[in-house]
Design goal:
BirA Bifunctional Protein, domain 2, 9-stranded mixed β-sheet, 12 strands, EC 2.3.1.181, Octanoyltransferase, acyltransferase, aa-tRNA-synth_II/BPL/LPL
């Protein structure tokens, strides 16, 4: 997923039906997975909101954007002033849950725009998202899991150090349809996390598939594995 950073317009992406942001679309268990390449954060946010309106209105089915961002810090609604960079690095404030995090090259970001079944259960959706990412890690040989009281997917404490987050989750649900989503660190530069308190957590670290496995694991490697497991996001209804 490399190439020039793109900024979308409604003319360039009218409905993502048949033609996607870069011409690659896959239907998985009723979800449309769109490979959006390297995409400016604001452009992706605009596209999320456009898709959200379409899904809410019933004009389009559930869609998941899969992409990379140029380096950017985003701050959720619970971000504290002391979590932010102290060197003047710009931060984009967003309306998702959670605190501050980093997005950038070497990290696969997923934005599921999906309708949740009634009654809406946000916690269950977060757990499904975590399970999908745990299963992705397992496919590459990394044992990861949950930590009580903390969202995301973690490598447990071991002789290498304290618990380390390998995938982050931050979502919003409006009118029964999700926004924002997840990010899994593949082979990103972990130094970007040194400027912030990632997700507001001071007593744990951040890691990547590459760092944990001792071999290169790229976004290109992880992308098809995530696509195959997107069905985990869909609630099983009787």
């Amino acid at each position: 997923m490399t190439g020039p950073v793109r900024r979308l317009t409604s003319a360039a992406s009218p409905a993502l039906s048949g033609t996607t942001l870069d011409g690659v679309s896959t239907m998985i268990s009723g979800l449309t997975a769109v490979r959006a390449g390297l995409l400016d954060y604001q452009a992706a946010w605009d596209e999320q909101r456009r898709l959200h309106e379409s899904v809410v209105a019933g004009e389009q089915g559930d869609t998941v954007l899969l992409l990379e961002h140029p380096s950017v810090y985003t701050a959720g609604k619970r971000t504290e002033p002391w979590d932010r960079p102290t060197d003047g690095t710009p931060v984009v404030d967003v309306d998702r849950g959670g605190k501050i995090t980093w997005h950038g090259p070497g990290q696969l970001v997923g934005y599921p725009i999906v309708r949740l079944p009634d009654p809406v259960d946000v916690v269950a959706y977060v757990r499904r998202t975590e399970q999908m990412l745990i299963d992705v890690c397992a496919e590459f040989g990394l044992t990861a899991g949950r930590i009580e009281g903390r969202s995301g997917v973690w490598v447990p404490e071991d002789d290498r150090g304290p618990a380390r987050k390998v995938a982050a989750i931050g979502i919003r649900v409006a009118r029964g349809v999700t926004l924002h989503g997840f990010a899994i660190n593949c082979d990103c530069d972990l130094g970007f996390y040194d400027r912030i308190v990632p997700c507001g957590i001071r007593d744990a670290g951040v890691t990547s598939l590459t760092a944990e496995l001792g071999r290169p694991v790229t976004v290109t490697d992880v992308l098809p594995v995530v696509e195959r497991r997107l069905s985990t996001l869909v609630a099983v209804t009787e």
